[in-house]
Amino acid sequence: MTDTSFLPPLIAAIQSEIINNEAEISALDRAIGDGDHVTNLLRGLEAVAKLNDELVQLDWSAALMKIGMTLMSTMGGASGSLLGSMFVSMGKAAKEQELDLNGMTAVYSAGVESIKARGKADIGEKTMLDTLIPVMQSLQSDTEQNADKTTVLSNIKTAATQGMQSTKDMLATKGRASFLGERARGHIDAGARTSQLILCVIADELSKI
Ligand code: ADP
Ligand code: MG
């Protein structure tokens, strides 16, 4: 993995992808949540983008931790504390890792595990984890098979997209949508959608380096 100068253009690409899909994400969270997910995420991303000069001076471990602490203190919502904890855990895991495919998989998996623990949730509960966990499984299996970069990145996008779509017909058992019972069915989870958009941007940006 290249140095952290990769981060500023990546953060900008993520911001513009979320802005381009703002109306749709907002509608998703209005349908089965309280509508603020996209605002929370954009607030967090803006705070992270302000750190650009600082992030490029840091190694991966410190940069990921800084991003996590910033998301925790600025984003708000359930998603803010969950994503914040994901990045702090990824930062801790990155301390002991070379960021090759094996290392990136270990770091990402540590992040997903921390969301599972903090949110007391797992796959199948109509949350961001329905995007994040399939991508973790895809990375783990591609690592075992020593897959090439193009395959890894394309599998990330497929897993994220299928995972996001899988939330549509689920009942929610965690988060605000869990109060709706059957009425939550038929709507994609907003956090699953933003996670998928972000992971697809990351895969596209990684394909350029
Ligand atoms: P809030 O629900 O507090 O308004 P947001 O709207 O920012 O926060 O985020 C909502 C998203 O957070 C949901 O769409 C879902 O993906 C995710 N989420 C909520 N609760 C959990 C949980 N316990 N575990 C994992 N993800 C969760
Ligand atoms: Mg909300």
Automatic annotation (TrEMBL):
| Ranges for domain DhaL | 5-204
Q: In its UniProt record, which GO terms are filed under biological process? A: glycerol catabolic process
PROSITE patterns annotated for this entry?
A: DHAL (PS51480)
Query: What's in the keyword line of the UniProt record?
Result: Kinase, Transferase
Its ancestry begins with: Bacteria, Pseudomonadati, Pseudomonadota, Gammaproteobacteria, Thiotrichales
Q: Can you say what this protein is called?
A: Dihydroxyacetone kinase
Cite the GO molecular-function annotations of the record.
glycerone kinase activity
**InterPro entries cross-referenced by the UniProt entry:** DhaK_L_YcgS, DhaL_dom, DhaL_dom_sf, Dihydroxyacetone_Kinase
Query: Domain of life of the organism in this record?
Result: Bacteria
Q: Name one GO cellular component term.
A: cytosol
Q: Which Pfam families match?
A: Dak2
SUPFAM superfamilies assigned: DhaL-like
Task: Write out the coiled-coil annotation as residue ranges.
Answer: none
